[in-house]
Structures are given as structure tokens and as C-alpha cells.
Amino acid sequence: MTSDLRPDAFRLRRRGRFGEPYLYVHECGSTQELLKRPALPEGAVAVAEHQTSGRGRLGRSWEDQAGDSLLCSVLLRPAGGVLPQLSLVAALATAEAVEQLVGRQAQVKWPNDVLLDGRKLGGILLETESIGDRLDAVIIGMGVNLASHPDGTAMPASDLLAATGKRIDPAECVEPLRAAFACWRMAWESSGFAAIREAWRARAVGRGEAVRVRLPTGDVGGLFEDIDAHGALLLMRHDGTRQRISAGDVLFQA
Ligand code: BTN
């Protein structure tokens, strides 16, 4: 028995192929909202060309210029306790899809950023829906800058066009992302988080380096030692004590 939570705890309600139904809209507030319907099955996907109220992590907004980004959400119905792992599954799948599209290795940054050449290309947002105190659904939002990116962000940003000279249409990204997500999710189901952890670590930036981690209570600095068997970050603080962090933002030391 391994210590990682196996998603065979998933209440599988899949009907048909992962990625169906597929909801595509030109414009919406947020693709996250399109999937907040109890009748939708696990594996439903929503894609928009433009969001008027796109959301990022930690209450931030996620801006896009119409047609310049991949804006995609996926609905899952996992058991509780696996959310940090799911972030890493989604980041890994997004990095792999980017790599397939442009033929360049994409990196991941804990907990859920996707980078190319050290600049942020995309991010993952997890939102939950509950019925009473029972987790009913997790909606995983994936945003990738394809042909424009915001300036002045804490983490320097980029887009695929700027980084590679290739203009990728949002519609071209959907199948690689769907396939990568379905594949990593299956690996997670069959082999547990260990398989995800190894693949994630192979792409991770910052491991073994001095970082600052932004927490709601303030920044904490130290050495990013590793991620644990549940996807939490293990930090060796400057005062020599270890801290396990489940949610926060990694900032690299200046
Ligand atoms: C982050 O890095 O802060 C996460 C960004 C997640 C953005 C995506 S775009 C599709 C989905 N819909 C949203 O409103 N947000 C996510």
C-alpha cells in the first residue's frame, strides 16, 4: 500500500469518450462557469475564444485578447483529498500538449504554471463544486497564451508566437490537450500519483534552488527541496526547519 491517494477513489461517471460533451463558445464570462451544471458528466470540456471575466488563481483575473489564447476547462468528479495532485496532472498535460504543438520542451513551476524558456505561458485553476459538505465536481481551467501575453506580471510572461514564431490557432490545441490530459489521468488512475510525480519532477523548474513562497500569511524563503507524495512543496527554510506547503506561489529569488 503506497501512501499516495489513488484516484481509484474516483466516482467514475464517465459516459463515452473523455472530452465529451465538448462545449465550444465564441465568448463567455469564464469557461469555468460553463461546466458548473450538475447534469454534466465527468470528462466534459468547455472551450472559448474569449472570456470577459477570466479567472486566475488566488482571486486574480485572467485576461485574453480574442482568439489569442487557449481557454479550456474540464470537469472531473474525483473523491476529496486529491486536489493538489490534480493541479500537477493538469499542468503536466498542458506542458506536454504545448510541446507537441511547438516541438520545444515546456517546463512546469509549482504548483501549476506552465513555462517556456523560463517565462510563464499558461496556468491552471482548480475550482470545486460541493453538494452540502460533499465534493461534487472539480473544474480544472487551463489557459495558454498563444499569440499575446500580459505585461508587468510578477512572473515574466510569454506566448507561443513570441517564443517560437509559430502562430497556433486555439482550435488546434484542443485535441493535443484533451489527449494528454486523458492519458495522464489514466496513468494516475492506474499507477497512482507516483507516475505523475516523476514526470512532473522531470519538467520542474526551481527544484534544489533558493525560492520565496508567497503564502496568505506572507512570504517564506528557503530551498525548494522537492514535492512530496501528495504534490505538496517541501521547503527547507533559512532557519533550518522544514515546511510542507500545499498552496502558494513560488517566486524565484532576485
Ligand atoms: C493562473 O495561472 O492563475 C491560472 C489561470 C487559469 C486560466 C484559465 S483560462 C480557462 C479557465 N477559465 C477561467 O476563467 N480561468 C481558467
Helix content estimate: 10-25%
What's the Cα radius of gyration?
Answer: 17 Å
SSE series: EHEEHEEEEHHHEEEEE
| Distance from first to last alpha carbon | 42 Å
Please state how the strands of the largest beta sheet are arranged side by side: 1-2-3-7-6-5-4
Count of helix runs: 5
Average pLDDT metric = 90
Bound molecules: biotin
Which of globular, elongated, flat, extended, rod-shaped describes the shape? globular
Largest sheet: 7 strands, mixed
Strand tally is 12
Low-confidence stretches are 1-16
- Helix-and-strand structural type: alpha+beta
Q: Please state roughly what percent of the residues sit in beta strands, choosing from under 5%, 5-15%, 15-25%, 25-35%, 35-45% or over 45%.
A: 25-35%
Question: What does this entry look like structurally?
Answer:
It contains 5 helices and 12 strands. It has 254 residues and is an alpha+beta fold. The strands form 2 sheets. It has a 7-stranded mixed β-sheet with strand order 1-2-3-7-6-5-4. A 5-stranded antiparallel β-sheet has the order 11-10-9-8-12, with no helix packed on it. A hairpin with a 3-residue loop joins strand 4 and strand 5 (113-116). The chain is globular, with a radius of gyration of 17 Å. The structure holds biotin. The site of biotin (BTN) has 20 residues, from helix 1, strand 3, strand 6 and strand 7.
